[in-house]
């Protein structure tokens, strides 16, 4: 934008030609170019004559980030004609874009405040008004993803790649939109290209590991999962996920080492403690697994998903203390009181009763559990419980290998 003032007149190239009578219109709201073409031409000639003298003092350009440059382009501030050249007429007058810019800033504020649903119509309006802005399509695609509209996100991100097809962030967002539509092969292509372009891209490695794990291709998931943990060494979730991949690959000692790292970072991490207990069970360290499960329950007392497995493990493990058996009995009774028709909760309580020498109670609980399992059509579980009933009737606890 360039301007010159002579007396009451101000001439502006922005890049459109503007002429204002500052005495009559101090707010510069009425463009008088059309009614004063001769004066406008004269002032324009003076303007470019003056600016041409200052070429020696031009400063070096400062690179703007992609988002800023795209917004500046859409507002007409980037790409203006050089001094002395006539404007091409293809750029927008910044003053005509102020409403659009206002909508953009309101939309961005809503998005930053965690209100994507409210930001969406504003972003859609801005994109309609400035369809040349690739970066706005990225923002629109991200909002669609937040709202679970993956197909629309995919289309928005494809448009954002028109000028720069090798932008790793855009490729990652495109991959996410594809992954959420279960287009896994295409998603993998996007994620692999993204991390190839930006090897330290945390999101790319994490997403690549996720899509491979969803396909149960844990061999392929291992390396991006390891890389993500390397890039996010203070993240308990990163180490837990890597441990779970190793668990699936039956690399037990390695898996447990990663779970231990996660627990060191967050001693109350439910997922790390639960996964660690599974890893310990796989290598036969049952008493340690019980301790890990107990810590998980203490850290997350409202998580019911681990309580019945904890009671079951106490009941089938040899060598547990009387105190631990009492703990299992109390928790098992609580679970059955809360879920009286849950076959697995009754089966777990029966195992603890038998381990405590209370065989008649074990038989009663197990009989009800077998009947519930059979009624639910789970013949496999019902058959296993019947076998355990025979043990309890013979005054023997159940000990799994």
Question: Can you offer a commentary on this structure?
Answer:
It is elongated and about 115 Å long. A three-stranded antiparallel sheet has the order 1-2-3, with helices on one face. Helix content is 64%, strand content 4%. It has 19 helices and three strands. The chain starts with a strand and ends in an 8-residue tail after the last helix. Among the domains are: 1-52, Arylsulfatase, C-terminal domain (2-Layer Sandwich), CATH 3.30.1120.10; 313-401, Alpha Horseshoe (Serine Threonine Protein Phosphatase 5, Tetratricopeptide repeat). It is mostly helical and 401 residues long.
CATH topology of the domain at 313-401: Serine Threonine Protein Phosphatase 5, Tetratricopeptide repeat
Q: Identify the CATH architecture of the domain at 313-401.
A: Alpha Horseshoe
Distance between the termini: 80 Å
Based on DSSP secondary structure assignment, what is the total number of beta strands?
3
Describe the strand arrangement of the main beta sheet, using strand numbers.
1-2-3
Integer-rounded radius of gyration: 34 Å
Q: Judging from the principal axes of the Cα atoms, what is the shape?
A: elongated
Unreliably modeled segments: 56-65, 71-89
Helix-strand sequence:
EEEHHHHHHHHHHHHHHHHHHH
> Residue-averaged pLDDT, rounded?
87
Strand content: under 5%
């Amino acid at each position: 934008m360039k301007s010159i003032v002579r007396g009451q007149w101000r001439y502006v190239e922005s890049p459109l030609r503007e002429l204002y009578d500052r005495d009559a219109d101090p707010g510069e709201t009425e463009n008088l170019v059309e009614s004063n073409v001769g004066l406008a031409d004269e002032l324009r000639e003076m303007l470019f004559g003056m600016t041409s003298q200052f070429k020696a003092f031009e400063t070096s350009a400062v690179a703007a980030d992609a988002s800023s440059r795209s917004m500046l382009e859409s507002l007409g501030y980037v790409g203006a004609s050089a001094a002395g050249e006539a404007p091409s007429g293809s750029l927008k007058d910044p003053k005509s874009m102020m409403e659009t810019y206002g909508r953009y800033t309101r939309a961005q504020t809503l998005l930053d405040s965690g209100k994507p649903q409210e930001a969406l119509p504003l972003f859609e309006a801005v994109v309609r008004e400035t369809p040349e802005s690739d970066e706005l399509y990225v923002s629109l695609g991200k909002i669609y993803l937040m709202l679970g509209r993956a197909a629309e996100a995919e289309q928005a991100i494809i448009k954002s790649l028109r000028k720069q097809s090798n932008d790793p962030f855009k490729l990652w967002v495109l991959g996410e939109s594809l992954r959420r539509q279960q287009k896994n092969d295409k998603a993998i292509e996007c994620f692999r290209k993204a991390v190839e372009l930006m090897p330290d891209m945390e999101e790319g490695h994490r997403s690549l590991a996720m899509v491979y794990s969803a396909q149960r291709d844990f061999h392929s998931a291992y390396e991006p999962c390891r890389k993500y943990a390397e890039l996010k060494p203070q993240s308990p979730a990163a180490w837990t996920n890597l441990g779970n991949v190793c668990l699936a690959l039956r690399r037990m000692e390695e898996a447990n080492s990663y779970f231990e790292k996660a627990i060191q970072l967050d001693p109350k991490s439910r997922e790390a403690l639960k996964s660690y207990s599974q890893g310990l069970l796989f290598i036969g360290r049952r008493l340690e697994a019980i301790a890990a499960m107990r810590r998980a329950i203490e850290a997350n007392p409202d998580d019911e998903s681990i309580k019945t497995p904890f009671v079951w493990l106490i009941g089938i493990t040899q060598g547990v203390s009387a105190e631990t058996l009492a703990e299992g009995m109390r928790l098992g009774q609580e679970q059955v009181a809360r879920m009286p028709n849950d076959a697995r909760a009754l089966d777990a309580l029966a195992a603890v009763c038998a381990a405590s020498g209370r065989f008649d109670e074990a038989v009663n609980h197990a009989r009800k559990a077998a009947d519930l399992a059979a009624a639910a059509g789970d013949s496999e579980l019902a058959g296993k419980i019947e076998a355990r009933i025979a043990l309890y009737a013979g005054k023997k606890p159940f000990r799994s290998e």
